[in-house]
Amino acid sequence: MKNKFLLALIFFGLFSLTILPARALDLSYSRGRIEGAANVVPAAIPFEKSSKDPLILPILMYHHIRVYKDLKDPVGVNLSVTPRFFARQLDELKRLGFHTITFKDLRAGQLPPKPIILTFDDGYEDNFLYALPELKKRGMRGVVFMISSRVGASGYLSLKELKEMSSGVFEVGSHTVSHFGLAGLPAQKLRKEVVGSKKILEKQLGSPIVSFSYPYGSYSAQAVREVSAAGYDYAVVTRSGFASLNYPLTLYRLRVVEGMNFQDSRLARKKVRLLSRVDER
User: Beta strands 234-240 and 170-174: pairing type?
Assistant: First the structure.
């Protein structure tokens, strides 16, 4: 009898694992609580919920804004959105009633209706050439996560460009010193990547760095602790979903790709109750 019971448990566990990917795509909402993947937070991450009901916020993830059609580089193509389509996406967000904010706005707690955060990983120069003008034209804002060792490198933002971007349109966040995946890094190296990038960028820009992006979405419980100890208020991962602010150092994002139509996406669902205030206590 015990053997049958154990076999049943094993079968149920394996069955559950097979259906998780399908459930992870379901990001419908009920009274502000995420029903999909964004509820799945690694048990090892040492953070507790601040309230019974999650506070929900969409965070979009971009990399390159450029025209790029090299079929031999499918990863590069997948990480690229053309300037023309990027402009159309911004217009769609405005039509849907979204207002762009930064993590510093989030920390201050002074938020507009339907806030949304646009993030740009790595700090590519095309963000300055194409994203900045389109955002500025519409009075919108974004967050660029800069790899500190690549400031001024070929294809990346120069310090002058980074300063111009951060003068009103962009918040600058940290994307580590060298862009290593953090899960499994030795403790000393991990700390250097997390703390070092913050210090470098703060010295270069003369303003606090409050947000962080885990390279490749790679993180561990130790990495989260280091990010917290370094003084970051928010950190984003690459897992797909709406962000729950009850887990500020493992915030989910929605990857944006060329051809993505926000009008027909989850962002446009009328039943979605998005964050209206940072703190409801």
Answer: unpaired
By the 10 Å C-beta count (0-12 exposed, 13-18 middle, 19+ buried), 181 is classed as: middle
Residue-range domains of the chain with CATH: 55-268 (3.20.20.370)
Which of 156, 202, 195 is closest to 177 using CA atoms? 195
pLDDT tens per residue, the chain (281 residues)?
444 444 443 333 333 333 222 222 222 222 222 222 222 223 222 223 334 445 789 999 999 999 998 989 999 999 999 999 999 999 999 999 999 999 999 999 878 989 999 999 999 999 999 999 999 999 999 999 999 999 999 999 999 999 999 999 999 999 999 999 999 899 999 999 999 999 999 999 999 999 999 999 999 999 999 999 999 999 999 999 999 999 999 999 999 988 887 766 666 653 344 443 333 32
pTM: 0.78
Residue 124 CA from chain centroid, whole number: 16
